[in-house]
DNA sequence: ACTTTTTTTTAGATTTGTCTAAATTTTAAT
DNA sequence: ATTAAAATTTAGACAAATCTAAAAAAAAGT
């Protein structure tokens, strides 16, 4: 079956919200999509009759397994396009989200298959988020927040949760990017800031706010 | 200003129909877009209030210079994407039109700028049609139909007007593609068929119907 | 010149996705 | 346990894009 751009955006947003909380609320979804709660209720009725969500009035909702599969497919398209935009067209990663938001709705399966192959079957998008495979299987990257890493440990940056231009600017300043290796020197108890050393650069201190947005894995 | 997918499709179709006849009729546009004449009239009123067309009731219509510029920009996007699909993703040229029909509406100017550069500023799309530049300037490729070429002349295939899978199959069989060099041996008066010789292949005869769809230029 | 046919436009509905304002239900607070 | 606040749903309206059926205008035929 084929879904409208609007339906796809709703499905994908429910998916993303479900990563944090099992069941999603009307307000949170309205907020995510920059629409009004009333619109969400309307769309949810539709998604329910199409059997993509479990929904009980006033009780919140979640994707069922069909809905989940569709969501993962949209996420797949979104992230493949983001990868294309950064690695082939040379966009900065803070500029690609909105464009991928449109490209993800182009509905040819063959297109995505070929794009995937053209990009050499990437596993993660430019923000470090895993790209689901054709069957909707998505790698769970076990990662920790920089604030949780013990001192003197070497880690690799795997993803960044805040993907704003301001964050990119900051990360650039610190020479941090996805897959950068860095060492945690010390956590400061006073304000939670963290001293790190990025490859051959002089060690520096990042605020807790920044550290909280950087996710890393060992080795 | 920003236009809806529907508006863009109408604008582009008017542009294409104007290549053949100066002013476009309601029926022909409805036919081109697979809609009903009533829908065309509705949309034309809108395009008129947006000052993109010259339109007099019952009299037909045409794009004004603003409308023309917008059309050329859509055509530019469409053809750049077609080039991408064929030359980067390996699609056959009979499979790309519908996908480009969707991609052309993705509205980032930066995207198209970078795509153009990524593709090395191509001048023509996979069907041999010229790609308008950023300013809406489009090369007029002076070309002739194969039926009009005098015998014993060497020519280069510049475009193909029928872009169906059936035509592609036929052309493949004859080893004809865009920019293929071939020689016209003889025109047969009986049925208008044409004997041609394609590079090192044995000479062959193509029907008038096929010849009429192949456009070539000298040298 | 009149009549018929074709083309185009209007009138009125329909679908999709959205909104505001009011009603309802749930949750939190006293 | 009531009451107040917050969240959610309903009711009703609206814009965009489409359609069908009927009316109007233009073109073609005799
Ligand atoms: Mn989207
Ligand atoms: Mn991403
Ligand atoms: Mn289109
Ligand atoms: Mn083309």
Please write out the topology.
The structure is a homodimer of 219-residue chains.
Chain A: H1 5-18, H2 26-33, H3 37-49, E1 53-55, E2 61-63, H4 65-87, H5 97-103, H6 109-118, E3 144-145, E4 154-160, H7 165-173, E5 181-187, E6 194-198, E7 204-206, H8 208-211, E8 214-218
Antiparallel strand pairs in A: 1-2, 3-8, 4-5, 4-8, 5-6, 6-7
The site of one manganese (II) ion has 4 residues of chain B, from loops.
Chain A binds a DNA duplex (30 and 30 nucleotides) through helix 3.
Describe it.
- 2 copies of one chain form a homodimer.
- Chain A is of the alpha+beta class and 219 residues long.
- Among the domains of chain A are: 5-63, Orthogonal Bundle (Arc Repressor Mutant, subunit A), CATH 1.10.10; 144-218, Ferrous iron transport protein A (FeoA) (SH3 type barrels), CATH 2.30.30.
- Helix content of chain A is 40%, strand content 16%.
- Chain A is built from 8 helices and 8 strands.
- In chain A, the strands form 2 sheets. The first copy, chain A, has a 6-stranded antiparallel β-sheet. A two-stranded antiparallel ribbon of chain A has the order 1-2.
- In chain A, strand 1 and strand 2 form a beta hairpin.
- In chain A, helix 1 (5-18) packs across helix 4, helix 2 packs across helix 3 and helix 4 packs across helix 5 (97-103).
- In chain A, 32% of the residues are buried.
- The mean pLDDT of chain A is 94.
- The first copy, chain A, binds a DNA duplex (30 and 30 nucleotides) through helix 3.
């Amino acid at each position: 079956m084929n879904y409208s751009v609007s339906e796809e955006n709703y499905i994908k947003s429910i998916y993303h919200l479900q990563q944090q909380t099992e069941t999603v609320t009307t307000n949170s979804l309205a907020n995510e999509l920059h629409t009004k709660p009333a619109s969400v209720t309307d769309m949810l009725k539709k998604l329910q009759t199409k059997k993509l969500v479990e929904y009980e009035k006033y009780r919140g909702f979640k994707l069922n397994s069909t809905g989940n599969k569709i969501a993962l497919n949209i996420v797949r398209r979104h992230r493949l396009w983001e990868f294309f935009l950064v690695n082939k067209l040379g966009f900065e990663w803070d500029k690609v989200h909105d464009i991928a938001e449109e490209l993800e709705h182009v509905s040819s399966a063959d297109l995505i298959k070929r794009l995937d192959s053209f990009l050499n079957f990437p596993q993660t998008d430019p923000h470090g988020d895993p790209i689901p495979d054709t069957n909707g299987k998505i790698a769970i990257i076990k990662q920790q927040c920089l604030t949780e890493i013990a001192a003197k440990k070497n880690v690799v940056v795997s993803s960044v949760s805040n993907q704003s231009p301001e964050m990119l600017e900051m990360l650039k300043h610190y020479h941090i990017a996805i897959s950068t290796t860095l060492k945690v020197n010390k956590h400061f108890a006073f304000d939670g800031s963290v001293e790190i050393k990025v490859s051959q650069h002089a060690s520096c201190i990042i605020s807790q706010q920044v550290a909280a947005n950087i996710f890393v894995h060992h080795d």
